[in-house]
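Quick question: what would this complex look like in 3D?
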Amino acid sequence: MNERYQVSVSPHVRDNITTQKIMLAVIIALMPSCIFGIINFGLHALLILVITPAAAVISEYAYEKLLHKKVTVGDLSALLTGLLLGMNMPPEIAWWIPVLGAVFAIVVIKQLYGGLGSNFMNPALGARCFLIIAFSGQMTTYTSNGGFINKVWDVPATTDALSQATPLAYLKLGEHFDLTSLFLGNVGGVIGETSALCLLIGGLFLVFIKVIEIRIPAVYIGTFAVLTVITAAIRGYNDPFIFMLEELCAGGLMLGAWFMATDYVTSPITPKAQYVYALLLGVLTWIFRLIGKSAEGVSYAIIFMNCLVPLIENYTKPLAFGIVKEKKSDKGKEGEKA
Amino acid sequence: MSLKKDTPLERIVNGIYTENPVFCLILGMCPTLATTTSALNGVGMGLSTTIILTMAELIISLIRKIIPDRMRMPAYIVVIASFVTIVDFLMEGFTPGLYKSLGIYIPLIVVNCIIMGRAEAYAGKMKPVSAFFDGLGMGFGFTIALFLLGSVREIIGAGTWFGMKVTPASYVPVNIFVLAPGAFLVLGFLVAIMNKLKIGAGRRVGVDPALGNMCGDCANCMKLGLCSGREACDAVKEAVPSDNAVTASTTPADKKEGV
């Protein structure tokens, strides 16, 4: 009889989804791009994609062991951070740079702020920006000793670009790039960003199994696309739409929008805040890429917005169920009561 | 530490270790972060601040009784600015290289919050000898902190130390440590190490048998939360009256509370 009146605190509806399963899903979603990166850039890319996650996992384990904390390597979040960081490395980079980046991502950006769930910035992107500032030369040298696809496919003459600059740098100079190879990924760049197709498959897979909502990537990419078309039209480019598609497929936009801007820890919780967040991401990326001097701006845009998330959430706080919105005059007082 | 309060040695130990202006009080962050791109710049900045701090504290302490209370801030600034001007001209004349690399940060010593803070909190209330050694201690503490910060940043970020190559030829300098983000990173780590040392020392040496780990000097304490805090401290003090309860450097308001 008594048991019937026992009341427990929320949450009452439970799901059997765990952090580990979510992380595993994201890792699976990243696999097409990883495999494509290895095919595209060769064995050195494979080495980078193996040692970076390994370094991330080892540094998380070592940190938690040394500080007598609960070891959380099993939730796979460190593995995912390492994988994302590895995908953000130029294909021929010296092995110790991504290792250093992985240690920085896990120890400084993630663990020093309290571990998974407490970091204010995406660890992989934070480490990438750290490395770009620290080793700007090595981090922007996109040489490729030639992967598999370069040799099999009859690639256009633009492939010479592979040893010098990313497609984005070419677009910046006002040159056109073959849209098909941009979409498929047979171009220069960091290991995991080149194939828009593979990233799209991975991203849509995550949306389909409901690990991420389509909100953030859709609004982000949409905002950026609209702004790019308008800019291209104003500047009088031949085909604004082609230019827009090239900008979408080139560089880190797809990787950033689907896999990094949607990071649970560093993106807003409520839908309204997510719209604001994604909209501003699009605007910032547009500013960095098309107004600013540099060719790429996705990583800076995302870590910048990561820092603004608490502010956005503060201004878009949803009303609790059943509470009527007060008039402006007595909003302050009522808000405190609520 | 069981040194007698306000003696010269105690003041110097206090400035360097117990209340190090950079690592414990987290004061003077602008010159700390901006000028420590190399060990030499750090030491140069630290020593010039030390001279100004020591002399300013001495003079302020000497004239503390004739400065009207309401006019003390302008009076302090006049004293400090005089010494900054002297040091500024001396450095321009004798160390032009260092003067050039420190740039605007030499004139900015006028508004350095360590100097203002010590003038307000210590020199304006204490006898000249104590004030002089307080300035010396704080200045040495500041210099040592800037030297450590500058050394770490220069060695990691440029591979050199005081301009000499100290790393193997194959070492790739991590440029970010010479830039602004590196200053924040290194400072954070040094403060963490310092805290770790202090907590360890506190555990080993019981400060006061009556108060245990608590020093009773909560008004000047910058590590609230590391000990059991003010309330626990007061509770012990009520039970066991101790001379430590009222320390020389507490503010008048705190004295009333204590008595």
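Answer marked as accepted. The two ends of chain A are 35 Å apart (CA to CA).
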